[in-house]
Amino acid sequence: MNLFDICQDKLNRIKAEDRYRVFADLEKQADKYPYYKHYRDGRVEQVLVWCSNDYLAMGGSDLLVNAVHEAVDQTGVGAGGTRNISGTSHYHVELEAELADWHRKEAALLFTSGYIANEASLSTLLSASPNMDVFSDQKNHASMIQGIRKGTARRHIFRHNDLEHLRELLEAADPESHKMVAFESVYSMDGDIGKIEEICDLAHEFNAITYLDEVHAVGMYGPRGAGIAERDGVLDKVDLIEGTLGKAVGVHGGYLAGPAHVLDYIRSVAPGFIFTTSLPPITAAAAAASIRHLKVSGQERAMQQRQAARLKQAFADAGLPVMPSESHIVPLLVGDPAKARDFSNRLLYDHNIYVTAINYPTVDKGTERLRFTPTPRHTDAMIEDLVDILVPMFNEAGIRKRA
Ligand SMILES: *Cc1c(COP(=O)(O)O)cnc(C)c1O
């Protein structure tokens, strides 16, 4: 077998395990969101999307579309360089100032995505000292895991959100080593929330710095939308905050906020920051417009929370196996990869409703699910229709209530 045959072989195994991913050919419609066009079999259908991370429907808002129009007239399209080689525009500089202010940190540093922000920042920081330990929540996102693996620090995985286990690991480590605790605020597949204050206090007891991924929370929580750390009044306790501009902010890109000299160091050495063309200035312009708005408007957040609560309640009332979530994320447990995929396909092809099946390796085997992310544009009528369609499907498959 040559290498390409091996690829085919591995692909066949993925298909046999129901892990093969098919991308729906969609097109977001700014004025009709959450309705998208779905291109299939030479036709175009209108589908209702229930799994977008554009949680607040900012992506298609006039505010952002106009910001892009203005910026594109001003500056054209691409950045035309890395940050170091003519690719830093005033749009980037302004956005970084907005972000630092948002999280009440000295500075912020932009990356081309949230994934790169985590990978580049963690791998850089975790290689800065020859004697270092990192403590990583078991449910951390793949981008954090990749960054942690690339660093040279000794790795310790603590059981999800388990303070006792974290303490045990911290106590067992070299008291002289440099330490970091890395975790998330909203865990995006279960919708539960990290114990930020307790984890930070514990980390600081051991002189560990705290690194928090707020990707699913920025824009969504807190009086100015800066995330769970803001909502809980503990921004000070979090040393480094990582976020995305691609989810609730509605655009694209990632960042790290924290002490200016730490970001200056990452900026100066991280290959994932240095050797890549900077974000398009129009993207930075749109993100800055979105954040400026979300700092002062709580309306989108309130409406989103309302619809998320309604959806959870509607699922529970109908006896559907809604998983306990403390956040805006609403997962329905299916517990079988083939069924999850079948449900998703039937919703799409028979009902023009799109919600992706979440299967292994994104979640553990046996916990396959459909993950719903309502936005302010998902109406009560849409929720009722959805429940009416799901109930017979789950009944037929013999899945009821929480497993
Ligand atoms: C989506 C996600 C990222 C990556 O952000 P992108 O901007 O999409 O690259 C990082 N962390 C978590 C927890 C995520 O869910």
Nearest-integer average pLDDT: 97
Computed over alpha carbons, the radius of gyration is 22 Å
Helix content: 40-55%
**Low-pLDDT segments, ≥5 res:** none
Structural class: alpha/beta
**How far apart are the termini?**
43 Å
What is the strand arrangement across the widest sheet? 4-10-9-8-7-5-6
Q: How many helices? A: 15
Element-level helix/strand string: HEEEHHHEHEHEHEHEHEEHHHHEHEEEH
Largest sheet: 7 strands, mixed
Would you give an account of this structure?
The protein is α/β, with parallel strands linked by helices and 403 residues long. The radius of gyration is 22 Å and the shape is globular. The protein has 15 helices and 14 strands. The protein has helices at 3-16, 62-75, 83-87, 90-102, 114-125, 142-150, 163-172, 196-205, 228-231, 260-269, 271-274, 281-296, 299-317, 337-351, 380-396; strands at 26-28, 35-40, 43-49, 107-111, 132-137, 154-158, 178-184, 208-213, 240-244, 254-258, 330-333, 353-354, 357-358, 369-372. The strands form 3 sheets. Strands 4-10-9-8-7-5-6 form a 7-stranded mixed beta sheet, with helices on both faces. The longest helix has 19 residues, at 299-317. The protein binds pyridoxal-5'-phosphate. Pyridoxal-5'-phosphate binds at residues 113-115, 118, 141, 143, 184, 188, 213, 215-216, 244, 246, 254.
